[in-house]
Write a structure and sequence with these properties.
CATH superfamily of the largest domain: Histidine kinase-like ATPase, C-terminal domain
Number of helices: 5
Strand order of the largest sheet: 1-2-4-3
Distance between the termini: 47 Å
């Protein structure tokens, strides 16, 4: 959302905003980013930035907006969130020619270490969790009603009780 708001502000007399998503495979870079990634690009036809400005855009409190119109935290927040997700973000811009921010987030292609069906591992006790309600998970056939389930968010006490319930069964 920060990228979209900044794009709008960079086009005070109007323009075109494009949001693109695609899957890409990255070659290894100096930060170890490689393999399958989801790419999100936000492009505007706004005022653009010069090279000096682009080197500072992700710094906290840096802004090109007039005093009182921006905090300079939007792009540093984007940068922080992307890097916490082991992704990367880049910017391309030309003065008067618009700007493109590209975000690359890794896609996990790993196989689960435990199959998600109890039949696949007889004797293994499983607890399933989801952010969906237990009714929604069961009603849509994602999970059998007889299986142990906890709904996120849950407290440590709730998880402890569910673990005890499964171990005692």
């Amino acid at each position: 959302m920060n990228l979209v708001v900044d794009a709008r502000d960079a086009m005070p007399t109007g323009g075109k905003l494009t949001i693109e998503t695609t899957n890409v495979v990255l070659a290894a870079d100096t930060n170890g980013h490689a393999g399958p990634h989801a790419m999100i690009a936000v492009t505007d036809t706004g005022t653009g930035m010069d090279a000096s400005t682009m080197t500072q855009v992700f710094e906290p409190f840096f802004t090109t907006k007039p005093h009182g119109k921006g905090t300079g935290l939007g792009l540093s927040t984007v940068f922080g969130i992307v890097h916490q997700a082991n992704g990367r973000v880049s910017v391309r811009s030309t003065l008067g020619g618009g700007t493109t921010f590209e975000i690359y987030l890794p896609i996990s292609a790993a196989e689960p270490s435990v199959p998600i069906t109890p039949e696949a591992r007889p004797g293994t006790r499983l607890i399933f969790m989801s952010g969906y309600t237990d009714d929604g998970v069961v009603r849509h056939g994602v999970l059998d009603a007889s299986l142990a389930y906890v709904q996120k968010p849950f407290t440590p006490q709730t998880l402890t009780r569910k673990i005890r319930e499964v171990l005692d069964a």
